[in-house]
Write a structure and sequence with these properties.
6-stranded mixed beta sheet; Rossmann fold; single chain; PhoH; 33% helix; ATP binding; 475 residues; PIN-like_dom_sf; 2 domains
Length: 475
């Protein structure tokens, strides 16, 4: 009798029965969310992402990236001008031109670099769910249609619209499309952002006395862990306290004395810390963060004037954020007249310092001469790009309205004997596509901390007036 041929085992499936306590049961199915996460991802970028970071398409690891043709049309409108967004548009256009020199943009092109995905320009905006019909004729809705069409064409992929425009993200989600913010360079928890100073309680009285008598002490006597470079401390004992600073070069705690800068005196500990850093020639990069009225710009300007003999020029600059999204070209007059409304807060601080002295005094006249002879220059940031800033004391006001790339560009302009100060409030942002997590000031504070050339101070107490404090605290 012939031996029967054994049957081949069945092919394995995701639902094999497994033995558990003598009983068999099916293995659980993968959840829909887990299955979705395993799908290949394709990111569709809108114009706001490109204007924020022209190298964005290189930051999605192995995943594919696409841009709708409407994005290229919009970038064409931004390619002329001196603003950072014009620079970003030009750089992206050059990159795409180089990438597509031997290929068609309608095809998936390999991105340069190891373990990178592919890139394509989306030409087809005819989606079954038509965002233009639902929301109206607008470029944003054409971009959304292109993403929806790609989602139709690639049901085996997870298509994600990436945009800095919150409203566009909401519209995409309303049409059942995944939409995300551009996360590269974004600070995850601004509540934990580096403050630059701390208070240490219950310090032995002899340590306080040592700092007052000698001016310095070893940090191990006070701190359990090594402090960040150029970090400030309020050391408190039962009866006394002392302001101190961790000198990154000498590796020791040093007493901080309250200094005066061209008639401006610190009114609290944090302002004393800020002035100490501003007047310290060893610290070349400083950020000062605080709400309106804490004295950020005033302290920076006063310290610059105090050190006027050490630098060839003093630059005060701030980003121009046009009102109602209109360019400054809409305003009447020449370029100086157009920019004056944006520069007024800087002039106000200069007048405050000037008014500390009688009009007949040498100090009052010195400030007037500095402006007339362009020793002190107030200018928009657009005029700084492309220059080499040597022997300059450079103050950048309202830095929270800058992108991380803009901050990097400004710092990279620094030449020999240049000091750069960034001031601002990360919660008071006037630029549509930035927030407290993605602005350049937050990025700088997070990335530059613990560097021997950098110091940061967060100002907490408003010193403008009791009325201004009421607004900050109660309204």
């Amino acid at each position: 009798m012939a031996t029967p041929t054994p049957k081949a085992p069945k092919a394995s499936t995701p639902h094999l029965k497994v033995a558990t306590n003598g009983k068999s049961k099916r293995a659980p199915k993968a959840s829909p969310k887990a299955a979705e996460e395993n799908l290949k991802k394709v990111f569709v970028l809108d114009t706001s992402v490109i204007l924020y970071d022209h190298s964005a398409i290189q930051n999605f690891q192995e995943h594919d990236v696409a841009i709708p043709i409407t994005v290229l049309e919009e970038l064409d409108n931004f390619k002329k001008g001196n603003d950072i967004k014009n620079f970003e548009a030009r750089e992206f256009i050059r990159f795409i031109d180089k990438l597509s020199s031997e290929h068609r943009l309608q095809e998936w092109l390999p991105l340069n670099g190891k373990n990178k995905g592919y890139f394509k320009v989306l030409m087809n905006e005819a989606a079954e769910v038509n965002a233009v019909n639902i929301f109206g004729t607008k470029n944003d809705h054409r971009i959304l249609n292109a993403a929806l069409r790609l989602q139709q064409e690639k049901p085996d992929c997870k298509v994600i619209l990436v945009t800095k425009d919150i409203n566009l993200r909401l519209k995409a989600r309303a049409l059942n499309m995944t939409a995300e913010d551009y996360e590269t360079g974004k600070i995850q928890d601004v509540g934990e952002l580096y403050t630059g100073n701390d208070t240490v309680e219950d310090v032995p009285a002899q340590i306080i006395n040592e700092l007052y008598e000698t001016g310095h002490c070893e940090p191990e006597k006070v701190l359990q862990t090594p402090p960040a470079d150029n970090h400030f401390f309020i050391l408190k004992s039962f009866k006394n306290s002392v302001l101190s600073f961790y000198n990154a070069a000498e590796k020791q705690l040093e007493r901080v004395d309250k200094q005066t800068a061209f008639g401006v005196k610190p009114r609290n500990a944090e302002q004393a810390f800020a002035l100490h850093a501003l007047l310290n020639p060893q610290i070349k990069l400083i950020s000062i963060q605080g709400v309106a009225g804490t004295g950020k710009t005033l302290l920076a300007l006063a310290s610059a004037i105090e050190q006027r003999r050490e630098y060839k020029q003093i630059y005060l600059a701030r980003p121009v954020v046009p009102l109602s999204n209109k360019d400054i070209g809409y305003l009447p007059g020449d370029i100086k007249s157009k920019l004056n409304p944006y520069m007024e807060p800087l002039w106000d601080n200069l007048k405050y310092i000037q008014n500390q002295f009688p009009e007949t005094s040498k100090e009052y006249q010195k400030l007037r001469d500095m402006v007339d002879l362009e020793k002190l220059v107030i200018t928009p940031l657009a005029y700084i790009r492309g220059r080499s800033l040597s022997n300059i004391f450079f103050i950048v006001d309202e830095a929270q309205n800058l992108t991380p790339h803009e901050v990097k560009t400004i710092i990279s302009r620094a030449g020999e004997n240049t000091k750069i100060i960034f001031t601002g409030d990360i919660y008071q942002i006037d630029t549509p596509y930035l927030d407290s997590q993605s602005n350049g000031l937050s990025y700088l504070i997070d990335r530059a901390k613990n560097h021997p050339l950098y110091a940061h101070v967060r100002l907490l107490k408003g010193e403008r007036s009791e009325l201004a404090n009421l607004a900050n605290e109660l309204l």
